[in-house]
Specification:
165 residues; mainly alpha; 2 domains; two-stranded antiparallel sheet; 5% strand; rod-shaped; disordered N terminus
Length: 165
């Protein structure tokens, strides 16, 4: 018997899925799977998918050793986590499927990283602005002193020329 499921990663038409986050189209498949997930599983699964991005359901089934998935049950698990996001919020998922390859949604993580980088850059910008201001003041004072010295020298030289003539 040929396993046609191997060549697909979704159980339903993905055109119904919003922004590449496939969800369940009913609960019958979940009931039939009888998943036995626990808190440790969610952490392990999230970390595993984060460390193995861009793999197909088939490829993931070949390398997952901490749970006995088939391609069908793994696909259902991804959809389960995406369908009830609030149940798994902060623990597991959401998972994105692009071109039949699975990824952890990095929006939240990326947003945190960008916010930290933004804060760091703002501090650095403030430091550079202060440094630039200090340099401007130093240059301004140096120019002022040079002009004053030039004027004094010109006055002194002019007075000496007048007294020698």
């Amino acid at each position: 018997m040929i396993n046609l499921y191997r060549h697909t990663t979704t159980m339903t038409d993905d055109s119904k899925d919003i922004n590449n986050f496939p969800i369940l189209q009913g609960t019958n498949d979940v009931i039939q799977c009888n998943f036995d997930f626990n808190e440790r599983f969610y952490d392990t699964f999230q970390e595993f998918i984060s460390r193995n991005p861009g793999k197909t359901t088939y490829e993931l089934c070949e390398i997952i050793t901490f749970y006995d998935f088939t391609e069908k049950t793994l696909d259902i698990a991804f959809r389960l986590f995406n369908t009830w996001k609030n149940t798994y919020y902060g623990r597991c998922g959401p998972f994105m499927c692009k071109n039949c390859r699975w990824f952890v949604d990095q929006k939240y993580t990326d947003t945190c990283i960008l916010a930290q980088e933004n804060s760091s850059l703002r501090i650095q910008l403030a430091e550079y602005k202060k440094l630039l201001s200090d340099v401007k003041n130093d240059v301004k004072n140096d120019v002022k002193n040079d002009v004053e010295n030039d004027v004094k020298n010109d006055v002194k030289n002019g007075a000496e020329e007048n007294s020698s003539s």
